[in-house]
Amino acid sequence: MDLYVNHPVMALGSPDWISTDLKLAGAPAASNDTHVLVLVRVQPQTALIRVRLFQDHGENIAADSSFTTVFDGSLYLADRRFVIGDVMGESRFIKYIGGPQRWRVRVAVDDSKGHACAADVILGAEG
Description:
Structural class: mainly beta
Distance between the termini: 28 Å
Order of helices and strands: EEEEEEEEEE
C-alpha cells in the first residue's frame, strides 16, 4: 500500500489511541504492549510511504534484504485488527488479521536514520 502521512512518525498496532507516554527519544522505533512508533521522517502530505504488510504463517518471510530492522517484538491486538498510519491517526489503513491476540511484529525500513520512505511489516502469530 502507499500511504500519505500527516505527521513524520508512523504508528503501527492496535486501533486504540496511542499512549501519550510512548516517545521515540532519538531511537528509530519505540513500543509498548499495543503499539510501535517508527520514525519515518518524510514531508507530511507530499510523499507517499510504501508499506508492505506480510502475514507469516511459518514460512519465515523476511523483509527486503536492503532494509534495516528497527523493531522485532510482541504486540497485543485485542480485536485482531492491525493499523498502519501516522501518529496523529489522520491517515490510517486498518486490516483485520484474525488469529490470536498476541503477534510477533517485525518492522524494517529502507533508512533507519530517519528518512525512510518504505517499510516492510511482518506479522507472525505468537504461541
